[in-house]
Amino acid sequence: MKIVVTVKLVPDPNAEKKIDAGSKRLVRTGIETVLNPYDEYAIEGALKIKESLGGDTTVTIFSMAPAASKEVLRKALAMGADDAVLLTDPALEGSDVRGTAYAMAQGIKQTGFDLVICGGLADDGSTGGVPGALAEYLGVPGFTNCRQVEVAGGTLKVQRETDSGYQVVSGPLPALVSVTMAIGEPRYASLKGIMGAKKKSIATLALAALSVDGAVGGDGAKTEVRAVAAPPVREKARVVEAPDGAAGARAIFDLLKEKKLV
Ligand SMILES: Cc1cc2nc3c(=O)[nH]c(=O)nc-3n(C[C@H](O)[C@H](O)[C@H](O)COP(=O)(O)OP(=O)(O)OC[C@H]3O[C@@H](n4cnc5c(N)ncnc54)[C@H](O)[C@@H]3O)c2cc1C
Questions:
Q1: 161 Cα–ligand 1 center, Å
Q2: Are residues 82 and 158 in the same domain?
Q3: What total number of domains does the chain contain?
Q4: How far is CA 98 from CA 15, 104, 135, 194, 217, in A?
Q5: Does residue 36 fall inside a structural domain?
Q6: Which contiguous run of DSSP H or E holds residue 258?
């Protein structure tokens, strides 16, 4: 079985971020690029399935990113993935969720897959829209927000997180799932894994090698960022002091009344 894990390469989540006023996009220069932290959970989920199935099950990492970030994928290989594919082309720059999902689908079809595993959210773009759109462009069932994923006898069985609990859903392969952090803590790369990753393949794929007949990149974007603003600074909290409970309740009531909340 062939498992493909989608991994976005994002600016270090702990670094201070700036938005370029002209392009309204995140300034990425001067900030270290890392694996999207949520995608490390997707890698963990894939490695667990590989361990449970054994045999000739493989895990391929798939990323769409600028070519300069290629070596960042080595960390995913050190965790235990077998190989990686980087879809990269200057014409993809400025892709929105639709363009990203469309281009990735063409690349993943060419790579081949039985199961695609995505993280739930990218730390930078954070729309959470790619997995659903990708399932649609791949033409396979999409199971989102999964906290457990099992494959047995060619059938997929997942537990989907909901607000009040979880649903148990099953379906055929090929399919796509997106996982939550409940899938299990990502493993650390061992020294053996780090050494072994140096020899693993990271193939690059350009648009010319794919059958892309729709617009991608900035030209194909159907969404436009109109404005970007910092969240409003929160007012300083007011501390209400009172000699006893009754006086405290009165002070809180007066405050709520002043704010026209009661
Ligand atoms: C040359 C080039 C330049 C790019 N520049 C930028 C940029 O400046 N800013 C930016 O945000 N994006 C950039 N991208 C990537 C792409 O446009 C975004 O990934 C896309 O907008 C995804 O939206 P999101 O971040 O909200 O993802 P979400 O929907 O929040 O992501 C959910 C999950 O989908 C998967 N996923 C999402 N995007 C990718 C990806 N690119 N590769 C693999 N898996 C993915 C991951 O598993 C992720 O956990 C660039 C790509 C290329 C090729």
A1: 24
A2: yes
A3: 2
A4: 28, 10, 12, 35, 10
A5: yes
A6: helix 245-258
Q: What is the pLDDT of residues 26-48, one digit of tens each?
A: 888 899 999 999 999 999 999 99
Residue nearest to atom 41 of ligand 1 (CA): 64
Structure token pair of residue 60: 């391929």
Which amino acid residue places its CA nearest to atom 45 of ligand 1? 8
| 65 CA → ligand 1 middle, Å | 7
> If 0-12 CB within 10 Å is exposed, 13-18 middle and 19+ buried, where does residue 215 land?
middle
Whether 216 and 261 map to the same domain: the answer is: no
pLDDT tens digits along 164-195: 999 999 999 999 999 999 999 999 999 999 99
Q: Specify the pTM.
A: 0.89
In a domain, 174, yes or no: yes
> d(Cα 243, Cα 6) in Å, to the nearest integer?
58
Task: Give the distance (Å) from ligand 1 centre to CA of residue 25.
Answer: 13
Ligand 1 proximity of 218 Cβ (cutoff 6 Å): no
Quote the radius of gyration of the chain (alpha carbons, Å): 22
* Ligand 1 probe mutation, 8, 97, 106, 179, most atoms within 8 A of CB: 8
CA separation for the pair 255, 251 (Å, rounded): 6
64 in contact with ligand 1, CB cutoff 6 A: yes
User: Domain holding 159: CATH number?
Assistant: 3.40.50.620
Same domain assignment for residues 235 and 206: no
CB atoms within 10 A of CB 227: 5
**Does residue 225 lie within any of the structural domains?**
no
Distance 125 CA to ligand 1 centre (A): 7
Per the structure, the complete domain to which residue 249 belongs is given by: 231-262
